[in-house]
Amino acid sequence: LSPGDAIAGRLLIRKLIAEKLCIPWNEINLQRTSKGKPFLANNVFSIYSNYNFNVSHQGDYAVLAAEPELQVGIDIMKTNLPGSSSIPNFFRIMERQFTETEWCVIKSMSNEWMQLDMFHRHWALKESFLKAIGVGIGFNLQRIEFNVSPLQLEVGKVYKETKMLLDGDEEAEWTFEVRNIHIYFFNNNKQSQHHKPNQPQFTLLTFEDLVASGIPITPEDSECWDNFCSKQEHPVKQNSHSR
Predict the structure, then answer these.
(1) Under 8 Å between Cβ of 183 and 74
(2) Cα 77 from Cα 57, distance rounded (Å)
(3) pTM assigned to the model
(4) Where do runs of H (alpha helix) occur along 59-109?
(5) CB 165: neighbour CB atoms within 10 A?
């Protein structure tokens, strides 16, 4: 995760709150739960019972999903080769993160790259669910089992056929939405009137879009900025033998 990705995620959150809840940028009070999930600490409960949001970043994307009343989580994954390890060895290392049924689906794909892609699809689904319910990394991922459908994803389509089992029982109240660029997002769908059949449609934002409504939170320090701009982008490495 690069600093730019993290900043983009924070700017997305502030833009969302400022525009949708009409809270001035510099009055937004963001805090984290004990498990690290960001939440809005401003009092908006007279309007929304559970306004919540979630961000994810990887590769060229930082994404955000939000929901005024229901639980929501999002995760984005980029299919990359697993460093110096081979794909089969990588799968052996990660064996305990998925159920036997999930591994059967992953390994049923016709080549190693497609298997790796399906691995990341399952991983992002699990990550999104954990982010939606706000739990940490200590959760046993084998308690969750996804029945992904369809196996092949067409460009530009949103799929909602995927189902999840928790401790062997189907969790019918959750909706799983999957897009072909591996954006996964969840709504707790107990109140179906809040769930639109053809949503979400993601909007691509520029940096200028993100900061358009921004208000400085602290006074501008031009000297600090000048000092920052004067630094070298890549510090010169010290000679290990120099004194």
Answers:
(1) yes
(2) 8
(3) 0.78
(4) 87-93, 100-107
(5) 15
* pLDDT more than 90, % of the chain: 41
Rounded (10°) CA dihedral 167, 168, 169, 173: 60
Q: Would you call 144 helix, strand, or coil by DSSP?
A: strand
Average pLDDT of the residues of the chain: 82
CATH code, 3-217: 3.90.470.20
Structure confidence by residue, pLDDT tens digits, 150-201: 999 887 788 999 999 999 999 999 999 998 764 444 545 433 333 343 444 6
Q: Hey, what amino acid is at 64? A: L
Most confident region among 136-140, 147-151, 192-196, 205-209 by mean pLDDT: 147-151
Residue 9 half-sphere exposure, CB side, CA atoms within 13 Å? 24
**The residue count for the chain:** 243
- Residue 178's Cβ-count burial label (10 Å; 0-12, 13-18, 19+) is buried
CB 218 within 8 A of CB 112: no
Domain ranges of the chain: 3-217
Contact of 118 with 102, CB cutoff 8 Å: no
Alpha carbons 175 and 178: distance in angstroms, whole number = 10
Question: Which of 14-23, 90-99, 203-212: highest mean pLDDT?
Answer: 90-99
